[in-house]
Amino acid sequence: MIPIKDNIVASTFPLVNYAIIGFTSVVFAFQLLENDKGNELVERFSMIPARVQNPDQPVLVPELVPHQGPFGVELVPVMHRAAETPFSPWLTLLTCIFLHGGWMHFLGNMWFLYIFGDNVEDRFGHFGYLLFYLASGVLASLTHVLTNLSSTMPTLGASGAIAGVMGAYFLLYPNAKVLTLVPIFFFIQVLVLPAPFFLGVWFLLQFLEGAFTVTSTQTGGVAWWAHIGGFAAGFLIALVLQTLAWLRPKATTLRPNTDRVTYYRYRPLGGD
Length: 272
Known about the structure:
Elements: E1 2-6, H1 15-34, H2 38-45, H3 49-53, E2 60-69, E3 72-81, H4 92-95, H5 103-124, H6 126-147, H7 159-172, E4 177-184, E5 187-194, H8 195-214, H9 224-243, E6 262-265
Antiparallel strand pairs: 1-4, 2-3, 4-5, 5-6
């Protein structure tokens, strides 16, 4: 499911949300410009659980290198010593949320942040939202460390922090709706879904995937438990602040044309 837009119009300009998207975009552009040094940049500023656990010990990380095999050139993993971080490995719990592993990783994260972040900033206020976003990212990273204590895989991405934003949105906007793109085989459906349903399904999928990794031998891929930890952290922080009445009033303006449901059928080129 891909969100297109929600139906809540923020009452304030989401300055911090746009600034986070802008800063993360600059960091990603710098990653692309680094070319051959990109892996070194990732190793220095991404979060490696084993390095966080044992800051004084060198960490060996896998790298895919070309190798001539019986069926041609193939990529094989080779272990090498990770580039050292210029500061305490504990600080990488924060720096890793500004790095991304590729275009799809980056664009997907920024789009979800664009959709849900403005309304959460509207309730937290600008400075409060900045602290909330960073705290959600750190708590998401910490959750990943606690569930992967000996992992030497570099972990990076804003997904955990954005999961925190989604957790807060889940609590603060129970009546919101999300215009959602749902591809089903050869059909593309654009549906209006309740925001709690959209976010609840998203969280359930993260939890099921995370539960699967507990009993599997998977060593890389998506940091499911960072998503789970970030979502839970965002929800709980928002709950505490709402209980204490420390949040701004809820926006009431709705976007037009968010109750329409449209169905599109995909026909391959050359078809009847």
